[in-house]
């Protein structure tokens, strides 16, 4: 019985269909279908009830799914155990932010691939909030302040940011100096979020108002440079614009509190060795303890 056939069946069962499973596995739908047919032929039982609306598990499929998942996990553990010390293999699926990932995390992932030639790394860069469990990711790299969830998070480094605006915006609307003033300004936001500002040692939460929203930090930088309002952004996205004078820092006596860079993974007692190695490499790269 082919381990890839088992793994593919588990993905179809968990993803709720062949199309979603093919996306998660990074293979064609026809390849997924071929593996399923082969597995069913070998077992002599139908695992999936196919219809025009998709595929659903038969009673036998529901029972077999847990056995197949356990067998796949055991093979992964066995493979990790017998490989030369430190060597990784198999597949690692990572969700990373589009605004920060290609510039800040891609080099670490490239280094990981170079060190572990038997490892397949698949990274999806998106600023949307990815559901790790439903979409079959091993982990995500997230920046900022984490939302409450049942995911397990490990902080790998600090993230510093500032409130910024263009000289033209400041000339037209003034520069906010206090949290009370900031609320009256046009805010450039990723959603309906609250902002946090430092007041001495205290953190104050404010609810900014704004008509320009985007789910991309890069798009908010462009909007700030264009003079549309005040943005709260990490230094990594704004530094070149601050250096050129296209943006200036505002609220310098009340900056945002330092946030973090995190690796988050689905709940479970132990991270896989692949996730643990990635976490250690990110800590080595980002956790310098200073600004």
Describe what you observe in this structure.
The chain has 291 residues and is α/β, with parallel strands linked by helices. Helices cover 42% and strands 26% of the residues. It is built from 12 helices and 14 strands. It has helices at 3-15, 18-25, 29-43, 59-82, 101-104, 106-115, 132-135, 167-173, 179-182, 217-225, 235-244, 273-286, and strands spanning 48-51, 54-57, 90-96, 119-125, 139-144, 152-159, 161-165, 186-189, 195-199, 202-206, 209-213, 230-234, 248-250, 259-265. The chain has a 5-stranded mixed beta sheet with strand order 4-3-5-14-6, covered by helices on one side. Strand 1 (48-51) and strand 2 form a beta hairpin. Helix 1 packs across helix 2 (18-25), helix 1 packs across helix 3 and helix 2 (18-25) crosses helix 3. It starts with a helix and ends in a 5-residue tail after the last helix. 30% of the residues are buried.
């Amino acid at each position: 019985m082919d381990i890839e056939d088992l793994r593919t069946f588990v993905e179809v069962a968990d993803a709720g269909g062949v199309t979603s499973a093919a996306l998660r596995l990074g293979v064609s739908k026809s390849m997924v279908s071929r593996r399923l047919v082969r597995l069913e032929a070998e077992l002599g039982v139908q695992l999936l009830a196919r219809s025009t609306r998709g595929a659903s598990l038969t009673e036998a499929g529901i029972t077999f799914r847990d056995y197949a998942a356990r067998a796949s996990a055991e093979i992964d553990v066995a493979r990790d155990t017998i490989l030369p010390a430190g060597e990784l293999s198999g597949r690692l699926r990572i969700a990373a932010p589009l605004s920060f990932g290609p510039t800040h995390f891609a080099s670490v992932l490239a280094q990981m691939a170079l060190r572990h030639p038997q490892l397949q790394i698949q990274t999806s860069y998106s600023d949307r909030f990815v559901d790790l469990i439903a979409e079959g990711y091993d982990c995500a790299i997230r920046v900022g302040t984490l939302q409450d969830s049942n995911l397990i998070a490990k902080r790998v480094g600090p993230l510093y940011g500032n409130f910024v605006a263009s000289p033209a915006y400041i000339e037209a609307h003034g520069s906010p100096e206090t949290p009370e003033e900031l609320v009256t300004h046009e805010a450039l936001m990723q959603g309906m979020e609250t902002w946090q500002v430092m007041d001495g040692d205290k953190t104050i939460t404010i609810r900014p108002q704004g008509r320009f929203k985007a789910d991309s930090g890069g798009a908010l930088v462009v909007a700030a440079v264009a003079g549309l309002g005040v943005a709260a952004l990490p230094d990594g996205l704004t530094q070149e614009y601050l250096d050129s004078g296209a943006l200036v820092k505002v609220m310098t006596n009340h900056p945002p509190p330092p946030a973090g860079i995190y690796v988050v993974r689905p709940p479970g007692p132990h991270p896989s060795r692949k996730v643990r190695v990635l976490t250690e490499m990110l800590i080595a790269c980002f956790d310098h303890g200073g600004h």
